[in-house]
Amino acid sequence: MANVLGCSVGSGSVRKPGKRTFSWVDEEIMKVRNPFAGLLALFFVVAWCLSGSAAFAKPLVPLRTAWLGEHETFLVWYAREKGWDKAEGLDLELLPFESGKNVIDEMQSSNWAIAGVGAMPALTASLSSRLYIVGIGNDESASNAIFTRADSPILKMKGFNPNCPEVYGNPGSVRGKTFIVPKGTSAHYMLSRWLHVLGLNERDVNIVDMQPSEAMKAFADGQGDAIALWAPQTFEAEKLGLKTVAHSSDCNARQPILLVANMDYANKHKSDIVAFLRVYLRSVDMMKKTPAEDLADDYMRFYNAWTGKTMTREEAIRDIKDHPVYALDQQLDMFKQSYGTSELREWLHDIVSFQNESGELDRRDLARLERLHYVTDIYLKAVKAPSKK
Length: 389
Fold this sequence. Notes:
By secondary structure, this protein is α/β, with parallel strands linked by helices. The protein has helices at residues 24-33, 35-56, 71-82, 84-87, 100-105, 107-110, 119-126, 171-174, 186-197, 212-220, 233-239, 263-268, 270-289, 292-307, 313-321, 328-335, 343-357, 363-371, 378-384, and strands spanning 61-67, 90-96, 114-118, 131-139, 144-148, 178-181, 206-209, 226-230, 243-247, 256-262. It has two domains: 61-139 and 255-384, Periplasmic binding protein-like II (D-Maltodextrin-Binding Protein, domain 2); 144-251, D-Maltodextrin-Binding Protein, domain 2 (3-Layer(aba) Sandwich). Strands 2-1-3-10-4 form a five-stranded mixed sheet, with helices on both faces. The radius of gyration is 31 Å and the shape is globular. The N and C termini lie far apart (65 Å).
């Protein structure tokens, strides 16, 4: 009866009429009646979980990288825009340079970990055991070119060498002429291969060493007889009314952009290099699946942000199409050695031969370069390997 009368047995207390105490059951009933209370509780639970996971999240690794204002840089820029670097635990910093030679010359002062450069500066740096070649950025063979003015005698003959029918010039129209080119770059290599097609070498012409922007200004002001450039500076040359003498591809000269890693950094932080390659190759996969027309707007935005200059939609589409990129399995095949060589090594051996012919190498340096011991696929293989959780 005590319970019926509202007495609490053993406590001596009596509930007062008109007032009700709430048990946990009552509180749950109230939550059902008031759904906002449940939602509020859920919000606090989620917020607590997120704050806890953030507190225990592994901090991003800052990674300094070096690039030129051209195609391969778009892949890294795009990946950072999409947050793909952070998905791999990296926080990429993109340092701008005007040429691959500048990238290599300022390697120590800029303290970059990975970069995209042409094969010429990459091979030069390898002599001092400063870097590894760890991947292929793209193939720019169709984007390196020699230009001259519309009234140049160089344009009067095409196909002097039947093996290279699209090439303009002959020994008589070229010998003694002055060429403006950034030495030690892919444009320099392209010029040498073109001279070779005509049966000439660098001793038969005058070469003035200038960086691309300076070279364009000098040539527009009337200096030199021809100029060697790479895209997108080639578009500027066309806008000035200059005429194409030859592309690297016309001279059977392969021009890979190489992904190179600071040797000291790569030896100590292999996982960072592997993570970067995952980021880059994710962009490669995107490029292969997406029509150039669909990427043009992003490409124009990238070019303006990186160089401060503008590019037409047509130029963007053309530049994307002129730069083949290679997926992971393709790159592994190009690195893979068979009978002591590989597709990539054959490309690089051709460039080493050029450096030797131009007198840039002594016998010991030539032997070191020919071994190509700094070309390694261990980082690409690590990308291919299943990740360890």
